[in-house]
Specification:
Layout: H1 2-10, H2 17-27, E1 31-35, H3 42-56, E2 67-70, H4 74-91, E3 97-100, H5 106-114, E4 119-122, H6 124-131, H7 136-140, E5 145-148, H8 151-154, H9 158-173, E6 178-183, H10 189-197, E7 206-210, E8 217-221, H11 241-250, E9 254-257, H12 261-274, E10 282-285, H13 291-302, E11 308-311, E12 326-330, H14 336-343, E13 354-359, H15 366-377, H16 391-403, H17 409-416, H18 427-439, H19 441-444, E14 454-456, E15 459-461, H20 465-472, E16 483-488, E17 493-498, H21 499-502, E18 510-513, E19 516-524, E20 527-532, H22 552-566, H23 573-577, H24 579-588, E21 596-604, E22 607-612, H25 618-635, E23 641-644, E24 649-653, H26 672-677, H27 680-697, E25 703-704, E26 707-708, H28 711-728, H29 733-746, H30 749-760, E27 763-767, H31 777-787, H32 794-805
Parallel strand pairs: 1-6, 1-7, 2-4, 2-5, 3-4, 5-6, 8-13, 9-11, 9-12, 10-11, 12-13, 16-20, 21-27
Antiparallel strand pairs: 14-15, 16-17, 18-19, 19-20, 21-22, 22-24, 23-24, 25-26
């Protein structure tokens, strides 16, 4: 360990106590979790002992991988590689470190299998691709350690389940394997270690190493000159662009974070229009932009060559961009942890202050700026909810093993039982999964395409080459709408775009992509061929999955701010600035106190609106709205349409509503699950969720490279299977998993119950305002924006709504 200390001293670095503790415990054979703020050298806390172990083993060049470092995003893999290479050179170890991800060329992947590096930096998906390769047992058979970077991000997704399963197989090959995670602070940090190590944790030495260091974060909201004239609804924040430019100018380097790729494209273009001096000094970064462009942006940002970068979450995690001085967050990130993570991209040095500016996209969003600052000062963090019993991922994993060396069920069953995700799996469920892989289950057994695995002397193996190829092309749990490559007519690839957007434009139309105006020429071989356009007006692509729900912790902080103002407690300048808006809400309807729940009944030419404001996030609101719509409809014949945002929801009908039915009984948790599952919305939510589950489990195949199936065909196939299982095989584990995921992740059942119980204990206040209120207006606009039924422009309709509301 002295060698590591000497190298640190040579570089003029101090060794933090948490780093030294990690070195000691790793070399003593521990597994564990590192928890430290951004910018304090978490990577070196585990990289150094891995290399020191290599020195002690005197294994300068060996066969097989010694350590795997798993990262959630490609931008982070490059940063880790640079850090690792510097340490290898400094310690004098003749080891190779390489990256394997979706960006790695086929030739490089083949070379890595023949001559593997000692340290491989990779992604969850690439681990499973390697497990699908013959000879993986030799490749992984001499490993010392697995490190999972940004574990807090991965554990709340099915990629985390992939990691759990991958670790279980590699540990089966290497019983002395050490498993470590690196995590930001989350509310359930102890559970994070349990999930990473599984039930194996009880039989090995393990530890959580917490840094006592604190990262200082300065939060400042950008305020409109006239709060009364700032929009009540919206999601772009462009009106404050002029106030953002001086912040960029005075900073050496700035990252402007947006919440969606469309927003990213719009902000980049508008910044250039308003401040053309940024041309050549500003870039854009998001997941749909091509690899070469992304890597150039990351390198230029790291070297301090860019004044500003407009980005999405693609630059969220772990990347060390030391020149970055300032972060600008456009729109609420909807979670405290995500906001802290993004703030940490600035001041990425020990003890440096991370500075972040918050740009509200509409008036009421200012309250989220105040809530975020208070949450940070109070040390509030959200928990990460893990996936359990994700049978779609397990089925994909078993197919992965079956297309390589095959598997013996008894061996693999014991391994997966040691994971957190599948600790509760029963032998009956295991038998169903094996039967499903062999025969397709009860309802699909007549179709050859679902009979995927053969059993040869007890070994479960895929012998059909076509099935094996289809599976290898489908490995992964990140599910998105079908995408098409975007390339210039002469061939240079720019990135990818969703099929849906291309279906809305014609050859000759122009659209913005990757920071440039492009003209759509033709669609050929699943590639959108384009050329540069000189048109100043062009469409902005839309991508699915951009909206993030409000976290429970941030929701609580927002409620506290609103209730506090209503009760005369003003503790943040944003709350004070929102005074005119809150006063107007009180004047037209009510600004609810802590013991009150507001229901507004508004009549307009669109119909009769019931507006309610739990302030619990759009997912919970979707569940409550569906629940109330069903319960009201049980009392008399009525049909509602539902709209929601993070602050409340709307039930809209063409019939006058008897307000006497609005009692606390509507918010009871009695028969909650039955009532939710009986609602039309629940079935539709499950149907949408099943599409993703069917893709992951291999029930539907998304197509070959260059010949991807159209999204509407995939939706149709998944919907047909959903209806078949619903009618003829309701005990199908994938069908049951669908409803469990809807309740847990879509409707957030526990949070929904808590919200209903809270409302049940509050006084219901029903008001009948004339016109829309500050609280109701954003929900109405959001619905109109999605419906687009009128020949009037959105601006014209909103203008009329404002006139009615005044």
């Amino acid at each position: 360990m002295d060698v590591g200390k000497d190298w640190f001293q040579t570089n003029g670095w101090d060794i933090f106590p948490f780093q030294e503790s990690a070195w000691i415990h790793y070399l003593q054979g521990y597994s564990g979790l590192i928890n430290a703020p951004t910018g304090f050298g978490k990577t070196y806390s585990l990289m150094i002992p891995i290399l020191l172990e290599g020195l002690d083993q005197k294994s300068n060049k060996s066969q097989g991988i010694k350590a795997i470092w798993i990262a959630p995003i490609r931008a982070l893999t490059n940063e880790i590689k640079i850090t690792c290479e510097k340490a290898i050179q400094g310690l004098g170890l003749d080891w190779a470190v390489e990256i394997r991800s979706g960006d790695t060329s086929t030739s490089k992947r083949k070379e890595q299998l023949k001559n593997p590096p000692e340290i491989l930096i990779t992604t969850p998906e690439s681990i499973h691709v390697m497990l699908a390769t013959k000879g993986y047992e030799k490749l992984f058979g001499s490993m010392n350690a697995i490190v999972v970077d940004e574990w807090h991000e991965l554990m709340g997704s099915k990629r985390g389940v992939q990691i759990e399963l991958g670790i279980s197989r590699i540990r089966g090959l290497c019983p002395q394997l050490k498993v470590w995670g690196i995590s930001a602070t989350i509310a359930n940090i102890d559970e994070a270690l349990d999930i990473l190590l599984g039930t194996h944790k009880d039989s090995i030495p393990s530890i959580i190493i917490r840094s006592k260091l604190e990262k200082k974060i300065a939060v400042e909201s950008i305020i409109p000159d006239e709060i009364e004239r700032y929009p009540w609804a919206g999601h772009l924040g462009i009106q404050l662009l002029e106030k953002v430019i001086p912040i960029i100018e005075k900073s050496s380097s700035t990252i402007i974070f947006t919440n969606t790729r469309s927003q990213c494209e719009i902000w980049y273009q508008r910044l250039l229009e308003v401040h053309p001096e940024l041309a050549g000094a500003m870039a854009m970064h998001h997941g749909s932009i091509g690899r070469d462009i992304r890597q150039w942006v990351e390198k230029a940002l790291h070297e301090g060559k860019l004044k500003a970068v407009v980005s999405t979450s693609s630059l969220d995690l772990g990347v060390d961009f030391r020149p970055v001085e300032t972060i600008i967050q456009v729109g609420s990130p909807k979670g405290v942890s995500r906001f802290i993570q993004r703030a940490g991209r600035s001041g990425h040095q020990p003890l440096a202050i991370s500075r972040i500016y918050f740009v509200p996209t509409h008036t009421l969003e200012l309250i989220e700026g105040a809530a975020l600052r208070s949450a940070i000062s109070e040390g509030v963090q959200e928990p990460r909810l893990p996936y359990i019993r994700s049978f779609d991922v397990l089925i994909q994993y078993l197919m992965t093993l079956a297309v390589s060396e095959g598997f013996i069920p008894k061996v693999i069953f014991e391994e997966i039982k040691q994971t957190h995700c599948f600790a509760s799996i029963t032998e009956q469920e295991w038998s169903w999964i094996l039967s499903f892989l062999k025969y397709g289950g009860k309802t699909l057994s007549a179709y050859d395409e679902y009979q995927k695995i053969d059993v040869i002397n007890g070994l479960y193996k895929v012998t059909n080459r076509r099935i094996a190829r289809m599976h290898r092309l489908s490995i992964g749990t990140i599910v998105s709408d079908a995408s098409l490559n975007v390339a210039f007519v002469r061939g240079k690839r720019i990135g990818s775009i969703e099929e849906y957007f291309i279906s809305t434009i014609q050859p000759g139309d122009s659209f913005w992509f990757a920071g440039q105006a492009l003209e759509f020429v033709r669609l050929k071989d699943m590639t959108v061929q384009v050329k540069r356009s000189k048109k100043k007006k062009a469409k902005v692509p839309s991508w699915g999955g951009g909206r993030m729900p409000l976290s429970s912790m941030l929701a609580n902080m927002i409620q506290n701010k609103i209730h506090g103002y209503a009760e005369g407690q003003i503790d943040e300048y944003e709350t004070e600035l929102l005074g005119p808006l809150f006063d107007l809400q009180e004047e037209k309807s009510l600004l609810p106190r802590r013991d009150q729940f507001l229901i507004e009944y508004i009549q307009s030419k669109d119909g009769y609106h019931l507006m309610m404001y739990p302030f619990e996030g759009r997912f919970v609101h979707e569940g409550i709205a569906a629940l109330l719509a069903k319960r009201i409809a049980n009392q008399y014949s009525i049909t509602f349409s539902i709209a929601m945002n993070d602050y409340g929801f709307e039930l809209l009908t063409d019939k006058e509503i008897d307000l006497s039915i609005l009692s606390k009984d509507l918010f009871s948790t009695k028969n909650l699950i039955e009532d939710i599952q009986g609602s039309l919305n629940s079935v539709e939510m499950a149907r949408r969720r099943f599409r993703d589950i069917s893709k992951i489990s291999g029930l539907i195949f998304q197509g070959y490279p260059g010949k991807a199936k159209k999204e509407r065909h995939l939706q149709s196939s998944a919907s047909l299977l959903f209806d078949v299982f619903k009618t003829y095989e309701p005990d199908n584990l994938l069908f049951q998993q669908t409803y469990e995921e809807v309740l847990t992740f879509q409707l957030e059942e526990n949070r929904l119950r808590n919200a209903l119980n809270r409302v049940h204990n509050q006084e219901l206040i029903i008001t009948q305002p004339e016109g829309y209120t500050p609280f109701s207006f954003p929900i109405i606009v959001d619905r109109l924006n999605r419906e687009r039924l009128s020949s009037e422009s959105m601006a014209e309709r909103v203008k009329k709504m404002i006139a009615v509301s005044q």
